[in-house]
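Researcher: We plan to redesign the surface later, but first we want a full-length starting point. Tokens attached.
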């Protein structure tokens, strides 16, 4: 890997759709990347072959995240749609702060707000507030729709393409 600078980025969810893309874009730009994954598998081995440093751990394991943060300049925080978002966010924020991380990009959701009816959306909003209270420059991504989701609803009816969307 040919690095242009000494910046090191920790990418969580590194084998997921947005995480893997982030790893590859940073590597293409000559940055050092530490990919945080749940297990070694073909996806993580491919990232390693492309130049990423692989770290196996769980975002709910304070010591694993703390060890992964050593020397990191910037991070990408993406937690799966599972219980534990606020705990994982707190662990990430604390370990990143202790390590002197300068900036973080947080994958949130469009409906994140105080008044949300959804617990998940409210937890994303609380996670955003927690990260905002650190010294790190924080950017929250609130996607509405990923383009790849369109393929989930695309069908052919004869020679015509049909996009099925839920409508009330």
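Model: Full-length starting sequence:
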């Amino acid at each position: 890997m040919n690095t242009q600078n000494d910046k090191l980025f920790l990418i969580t969810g590194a084998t997921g759709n947005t995480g893997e893309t982030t790893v590859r874009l940073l590597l293409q730009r000559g940055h050092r990347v530490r990919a945080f994954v749940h297990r070694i598998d073909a996806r993580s081995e491919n990232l390693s072959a492309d130049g990423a440093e692989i770290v196996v751990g769980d975002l709910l394991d304070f010591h694993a995240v703390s060890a992964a943060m050593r020397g990191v300049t910037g991070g990408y925080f993406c937690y799966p749609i599972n219980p534990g978002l606020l705990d994982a966010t707190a662990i990430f924020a604390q370990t990143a702060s202790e390590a002197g991380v300068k900036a973080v990009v947080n994958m949130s959701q469009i409906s994140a707000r105080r008044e949300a009816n959804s617990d998940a959306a409210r937890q994303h909003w609380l996670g955003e507030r927690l990260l905002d209270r650190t010294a790190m420059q924080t950017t929250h991504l609130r996607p509405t729709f990923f383009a790849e989701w369109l393929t989930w609803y695309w069908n052919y009816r004869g020679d015509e393409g049909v996009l099925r969307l839920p409508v009330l």
